[in-house]
Amino acid sequence: MEFTEYPATIERRAVILHLDRAGSSRTAKSFEKLYEKIVENGFVSVQRAEIKGGDAQDVLTRCEEALGQFRRSLAGSGSRLYVMAYSDLAAVALDLLRRHPGRESGVILISPTLDAGPTGGHMPWSGAENPLTSSPTGMPFRLLLLQGRADQIADPDLARRFVTSWAPGTARLIEVPQATHQSILSSKTIETHAGPILDMVLKTFPPEVSQLPEGTSILYGIGAQKAGTSWLYDFLKGHPECHVPEQKELHYFDVLYGKNEEVHRDRQLDSIREAAARIAPPFEMQDDMDLLKIQTWARHLRIYADKPRVFRRYVEYLTEGRNKEPLLTDITPSYMTLDAETFRTMDRIGTARFLFLLRDPVDRLWSQIRMNIANEGDALTSDAFEMACAARAMQICANGNVHRIPRADYDRTIRELEWAIPAERIKYVFHEPTFSQATADEICDFAGISRQAIQPPRDDLRGRDASLPADIEAMLHEALAPQYRAMTARFGTLPDSWRGLPAPRPSRPINSTPLPSGNAAPTLAFLHIPKTAGMSVISEIRRIVGDKNSSPITLHTQAKGGPQMPAGYRFYSGHLDWDEVDNLPENRFVFTILRDPKERIASFYFYSLREAEKCSAEDLQRPDRTNMRLISTLSADDYFFGGTADWQRFIRDQYDNFYCSYLATRKMRASGRMEGLSTDEQVQLALRNCDKIDRIYMLDDLGPLEQDLEEILQEPVRLRKTFKNAGPKAGKASRWTELAARFERDDSLGRLERFTQHDSALIRAMGFGGKDD
Question: Which residues touch 313 (CB under 8 Å, ≥6 apart)?
């Protein structure tokens, strides 16, 4: 195995093994720059293993050899070991670390194709199943994942879910805006990855010297904006064991290390210029006030005069006027926008604790909107003020990704904070309209100061009121749904004052778009979900439009890498991936049919069983008859829940909440991409794509489909009672009940019912009713 080493120049504290594909000179040059930035630090070395090979098994074997050689060469060295991989080798690296745990302290993945490789099209693991829970250092095994948001190969949503499935503080996701699978390795981007990588591998080596006065610690109030930080400042200001600076928000770390936060410093400079311009002899009382303001602003601005990562003037400002109080404070809500590296920089000044106040996301954003409109200075009437606030909320939602607005993204802040700071030095407090004594006591206990009685809040903290219209509230609630889901996952039970998770709903009513009209015949695309009377529909439409006008591709595997909806046909149908629908002529009609999810599963099972009975013993041994061979030889329990990982992948792709995965991913075999998602998340993803489908019908009432096709095709259509491929009991007794009777183990039926849970919720969200599970 060929290794290339990039050695540490001072002391080797950590070593990174990079499993790298051979053959790409452009990729090799990009990683060369990354290696150079990493080893510049002096304490980390990189070993590149060039992985050559053809098929997947050959690559897996060579990666296994490289990992073994890496471990042997560093046995007894005392250095921390890490593995790094890009693209498809990331899945290989995860699989090796899972199957052969060793001395590694963490793994670094760049644009990982988590739904490929040895993981078999599914996430490698999730939640409690994670086998990489601890490292030889006694600290948790850590994951750093670098992902481009515009990646068309490595699914960004899957990367986000995979990171979320790890325990708090053990996984970090860095998303690079606009970066694709290739551009994440561009010369402009690759060097920026060195910082997070070095932060990960060296985070356990903090400096030992505090820059704070002896016997003191600091409490950072990092937000959230409009979540009670002014109350917190007032409370601590009145505490005899706490010294607060003359200004509540210091904006030190965000201005120096954050993104687009220099405005706080620049605003003070503008204020000084404006005040100085007003001053003219003979001095009057207003001039004296302006001079005092300039003096105050100038004292604060001096904190920015030090060189990077020299904190002398900042600490001087923190301690100015201090009288032996043991607790210092910096309450700056915009600190919640900072990243893990900056949180760790804040921590290295001295003994530090981090307090994060959390408010209901909708209430917090609405309060921020009211504050911003009020600060813009126009003397608006109450009605005009409420209208301006509502208009601003609609503008924010129209821009999209509301849940990722830096001051609204609790989830990102918590993950960055927990990556950098030990859990015992982080405190989360939920906002209360009037903070209670119990909450104040919790804060005092956390900060290490004695408990202090709270005082009535100041009247000027409320800001200008504006009622929240119901439609604006619903719009903000839906836009911020990812934050509600993330906080529920992180904390379990949320306060009663918080809104619950919004019910998933389509962006427009299902089946509300008009049918195609005009003289030109529209293109038809039928997304045929197995066992939903599709063959009857296909046969009838082909009879009308003709076989020559019907695409011969009716199965996604027939395309063999080519288009599944090739140009030049009027009718497309079959078990197809449907992302190519967007390429069809604008004058098109796209539709699908659903049925009761339980009955679809049972129908598919008995159809496969019936087809297996038609096959000879020799036919059943063919590779493409695996499903029929196993269904004819296994019990229902073992068919659905036994067998190899590959077999379970097949079962999940065919049976596990197929409607949600098919509509959400636009792929026939993509259940792995939905792993780890809640019911609401799966339903919402599916509904989002329903806008691209003109009509969705239910099997138990095909009358509307007949009428719509007759209007479009201008010919009589007969679908009801003409079902093809239907079993002998079609339309009679419930096949689900018959399937349930076949199970022998007590838990099998419940496990299979979970294969319908998300689909049933989807059907209800579409407005079709459906059965409650």
Answer: 302, 303, 304, 305, 306
Which amino acid is it at 310?
V
Across the range 555-579, mean pLDDT stands at 93
Interatomic CA distance for residues 345 and 706, integer angstroms: 67
Quote the tokens at residue 303.
Answer: 């904190």
CB atoms within 10 A of CB 691: 12
Sheet of 523-527, strand order: 571-574, 523-527, 588-594, 695-698
Q: H or E stretch including 590?
A: strand 588-594
- Per DSSP, the residues of 291-308 read HHHHHHHHHHHGGG-SPT
Give tens-digit pLDDT for 614-661.
Answer: 999 999 999 889 999 999 999 999 999 998 888 998 999 999 999 999
What is residue 758's three-state secondary structure? helix
User: 648: exposed, middle or buried (C-beta count within 10 Å: 0-12, 13-18, 19+)?
Assistant: middle
Query: Which residues touch 685 (CB under 8 Å, ≥6 apart)?
Result: 660, 663, 664, 674, 677
pLDDT bracket for residue 202 (50, 70, 90) = confident
Closest listed residue to residue 10, CA positions, set 40, 34, 48, 30: 40
Angstrom CA distances, 18 to 28, 123, 132, 187, 554, stand at 11, 22, 19, 18, 43
277, 316 in Cβ contact below 8 A?
no
Two tokens, residue 676? 């780890």
Can you list the pairs that 680-683 forms with residues at least 24 positions away whose Cβ atoms lie under 8 Å?
680/481, 680/485, 680/501, 680/503, 680/504, 680/761, 681/485, 682/657, 682/758, 682/762, 683/504, 683/758, 683/761, 683/762, 683/765
pTM of the predicted model, to two decimals? Answer: 0.76
Tokens 């489908």 belong to: 693
379: left (phi over 0), alpha (psi -120 to 50) or beta: beta
In the block, tokens 């890498």 appear at: 561
For every residue of 469-534, DSSP letters joined together read: -HHHHHHHHHHTHHHHHHHHHHHSSPPTTS--PPPP--SS-TT-SPPP-SSSPPEEEEE--TTSSH
What are the DSSP calls for 333-401, one per residue? GGGGG--HHHHHHHHTTSSEEEEEEE--HHHHHHHHHHHHHHHT-----HHHHHHHHHHHHHHHHHHS-
pLDDT tens digits, one per residue of 706-743: 999 999 999 999 886 554 555 555 555 689 999 999 99
Q: What share of the chain is helix, strand, coil (3-state, %, to 5)?
A: 45, 10, 40
- Could you tell me the CA-to-CA distances from 700 to 533, 537, 599, 746 in Å, in that order? 10, 14, 11, 31
- Alpha-carbon separation of residue 66 from 30, 93, 511, 521, 643 (angstroms): 21, 11, 56, 60, 31
Burial (CB count within 10 angstroms: exposed 0-12, middle 13-18, buried 19+), residue 404? middle
CA distance linking residue 758 with residue 773, whole number of Å: 10
CA dist 475 to 398, 399, 551, 621, Å? 10, 13, 41, 55
Q: CA 160, 362, 341: angle at the middle one, nearest 5?
A: 45
Of 83, 86, 58, 62, residue with least CA distance to 153: 86
List, in order, residues 6 or more apart from 763 with CB less than 8 Å away.
594, 597, 659, 698, 769, 770
CA distance 726 to 721: 10
